[in-house]
Amino acid sequence: MSPNGEEVAAAEGRQQRRADAGLERAGALEEKEEVKE
Question: What DSSP character marks residue 3?
Answer without folding.
Answer: S
